[in-house]
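Morning F.,

Quick status update on the modeling queue. The single chain you submitted on Monday has been processed. Sequence for confirmation:
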Amino acid sequence: SGGRALSDQTPVGPPARRSRSRSRRFGSRERSWLREDAARGCVSIQGAEPAAAPRLVLCSAHTAAAELCPPGQRLYLQLHGDLARRLEPTEKPLQIVYEYLASLGFEDPLRIQEEAANADLSCMIRFYSEKPCQVEQLDRILLSGIYSVRKGRTQLHKWAERLVILCGTCLIVSSVKDSHVGKMHILPLVGGKVEEVKRRQHSLAFSSVGAQAQTFHVCFNTPAECQRWLRQASTVVSQRLSTVDLSCYSLEEVPEHLFYSQDITYLNLRHNFMHLSGSGGLDSLCRFSQLRGLNLSQNQLGEFPTSLCEIPTLTELNLSCNGLHDLPSQVSKLLNLQTFALDGNCLTTLPDELGCLQQLSSLGLSFNDFHDLPAVCEKLLALDKLAMAGNQLGTLDLGALNRMSHIKHVDLRLNQLKGASADSLEGNKSVTHLDVRDNQLAELDLSTLGSLEQLHCERNRLQELTLSGFSLRALYASHNRTSALPSPAVALLWTLSMLSTSLLKCDWYGAAFSLRFLPSRLLSSLSLRKLMAGHNQLQSLPPLLEHVPLEVLDLQHNLLARLPDRLFSKALNLRYLNVSANSLESLPSASAGEESLSLLQLLYLTNNSLTDQCIPVLVGHPNLRILHLAYNQLHTFPASKLSKLEQLEELNLSGNKLKTIPTTIANCKRLHTLLAHSNEISIFPEILQLPLIQFVDLSCNELTEILIPEALPAALQELDLTGNTNLVLEHKTLDIFSHIATLKIDTKPGLSADSALASPFWSHGLAEMAGQRNKLCVASLALGSFAEGMEAVYGMFDGDRNEELPRLLQCTMADVLLEELQQSSTDMVFMTSTFLVSHRKLGVAGQKLGSSAVLCYIRHDTADPGSGFTLTVANVGTCQAVLCRGGKPLVLSKVFSLEQCPEETRRVQEQKAIITEDNKVNGVTCCTRLLGCTYLHPWILPRPHVFSVPLSMQDELLLLGNRALWEHLSPAEAVGAVRHLHDPLAAAKKLCTLAQSYGCQDNVGAVVVCLNIGEDNCTCEGQGLALPGPGGFLPPAKPATPSSSSGIASEFSSELSASEVSSEVGSTASDEHSAAGLDAGLLPRPERRCSLHPLPPPPPSVFQRQPSCATFSSNQSDNGLDSDDEQPVEGVMTNGSRLEVEVDIHCCQSHGPEPALPQAEDGGPEDDASSLVLHIWRQNSAGSSLLPAVGRERGGELQKSPSTCCLYGKKLSNGSIVPLEESLNLIEVAMEAPKKKTGYFAAPTQLEPEDQLAVPPHLEEEVKEQMKQHRESGAEPAAGEKAVAAPEEFDTAL
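Structure tokens below.
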């Protein structure tokens, strides 16, 4: 059990009290004892001093807390650096740790044992031998000390040493030195004053308020003490009400000195461990005679404290999240109670005695277990608000609501409502606000609610909705299933426009309705201020018949080809117009006359078909502050027109065909943001003269140089120049730009490690935009070459309101993944462990902060070498990954939010979390799974969703984005927007720009990965592919392949995909070779080969091509003679250089029947058609013959071929041909070529001009004749052989 002492004579069962410091490792005996049982482990116990090293105590999961501490002491458990709870003697510390780790997502018992011993875990769960308490918390609870005190303002009183206490709302001064009993002077501080005394050092004067005001002067010993008292007292005197906040202090009792503060009216004891009995327990709270408000939520009470019913002055009582199952009948004594919060408990019924509370106006019963509306609410005549969200109501009982004739606000979110029932047709004139979000309603008839002003019915299954619109002000009905029945939607609009006389807002967003037209009277309503009709199928708008007070009009994502001609002249109050993602080709005039009365300030026209003809119309809106014209058909922007838009603050011209930005942009003195990426701009605009310019994005253009002033604008924060391939920045320019907070420029490619690690299978681009936030809280991870170079990792992290966690995850998560890959090859295991370990490594920063995350890992399955690339995606929160497969989006991630994940919502509800009206867990976040936010455990978990999919040739793009991106772009729209772009950087920029034009004001980030996966995903070592350039993947160059008659597949250069062949990637062989003979020289070395192209077994007497990419070379002397030859090659003149002939055959797959191989003259055995073999053609002056390439030894040395050796039909990249000669006997294969980090060979594949062979004029005819003989002999297949493809044509100068 781990309770016995570990002695030298007892090798088993190390004791609970046997402890080691972290600096000292466990010995072999302890380690072997731990390995015997996964239920064993160690507990870290921290002492009272935070600086002291914790003790590691060996124990088992069955060891009780009493065995881990000396007699008379108790252990304390602290979770997430927050509250510290005293453990009961029978509780088992190690079992608590194991259960906590299992709740996070760890499953393997051995891994749980390992994680439990990790030092980083102390930030989430920690044990103390004494109750921990920080100095700051002690100061807020109670300050005390013996100081020199003088009463009164005059000098007549003497200074005397007294015990001084600051607790609650009062200053307490004892009448006798160092006395806690007897007469105490109480000085109420609320509304009073505290100030420093200038005549006496380290002194403060405390004064009360009122006619009987008193003053005490206190002299402290040190200035630090004086400042501590001044800070705390200043907080008290600044209050208008006598409020004491003791929340989150791990209190079991209130301080005894707090009872001296009899003026306390509101006491906050939320999130403590208050006991019922004791001198400062809940039973003693009745001693506060003026207490009106009491908050006891999250105290794990378990039962209702009946002593609270003895406080008749209470008007507000909060007992949420305490596990209450019922209410006592004594609750009827709280006659003055007005607000009663009982949310997050286990209540099923309410006592009838509750009906005595005739002053009760607000009753909170959310997230309990009610199945019906409580009947006692009919007796509460003053009840105004009833909150019953998150219960188990199945039917909306309109009859019960009619009987509650006093209730105005009803909250029925997150129930199980499937319909509404009414026992009579009697109308209800009291309910004004109804919220039935996140239910299962298919039909809803609320025609009896004649006074209804606001209705929330989002995320239901509504197909029919009936309302009485006489009082309706706002309707929220998005995300319903009305596509099957569009007519009620149209009828609803007609009803609203006909009956509503004060319609302020109509919001049909997303898939709420598929409207094809709007009624004319809707736009002519004199009460309409805001119309959100985006994401429909509107093809036109009705004409405006009269002036309308419309201020906000959102028509994005429709099918509009034009706007009403008199839109701007009739809607003079229009300030916001968004018509992005339509088919507009022109804009209506701003006014009928010369003078414009337009008040338009925000205009979004992105993703239309507007041309240069629309620019003059914009001049009619002189008040424009934000103008988005991205992704239209603009070629020019007239300078005279831009100069008149002097109020512009943000201008977006991205994605057009602009070549310049007019110089008159200097007139826009208020401009702070210019976005003009993805154009054809070659001249840097004159924007650095603007005094307020902050953000400039000129990426993906054609800039070549920049002319900048000597001093940059002080406000400039970000300048993006990436994607300008021809841009060259001088050192002087870089020095000036070094003062910018964020400068983005391209790293020039070179012979660096990064360029060598670039993968040919994928390239990426990323974009991050802050929007209207003053900081960037998103971060991206992009490693195109990971681990061994044939893998990739991409990630996106969104911290919502914090920037610390995304940066931490960006720096550490790839390293954690690499470590986890060493422990497991199962995608579910290593991805889950990566997220859980990253969650732990966040440390203190992860206690209060959280971040969404998505991580994509591309790899080959090590267990199955024949498999292709596999993409594994894991995510928490709202970051998503989408794969473009055959032009269609494939969503790979899962959104863990309350709105989009019903099962997660049910889990959170079952754990009694409070989901606020803005759909956030405890009012903090809408996500149910995050990295960090450990203080919200167990509601918020770090366990990710993991999904793996094999990649294929149909996979084109991988898109990663944060919440803001996917809220404004659907996966299908995102794929369609960037699929045609070859530059991943431009694609990522476009996604972010579209999101901003569609209404995104938050941080937005996107990562676009262009995939170039072949049909077999071959990753044999030396596999050559076209490397991606700045503009995307370039088409591969035509490889230098052997002729079809050489025995290799004839379709080598025509039918292999770009992922199988590259532009002649090879390696130069070494000049010095081993003298062990050909057979020894061709021994295979270890190399990576896919199962589709394995190393075939060598057939008898047939040379087998072993290396995946080799160079056939010859070493020549300066006089043109080979080192083993005495005569130069007859008929051919060389310049003495080394000739390289390269061929890559390791991926030569036959796409049809294998052609028959020619037989050798020596009658060798037939070749195996399934193996890759290489036949060398020999030619001499007499004729040509075929010989298999065999090894031949001469004195134990490897013979070198002359400079004219070549594969038959081998065409060099410079167009010349080398004829085969008689001296060709052997070929020399490069076995030890220099290997790069990525596993690819890279060497020159084209001869220098001075290395080309020259044929004398008098030998030209003879050479032509020999070539003709070669072609004729190669074109005639042997008898019985299958015909092969014709030889290539050579573009030789001959």
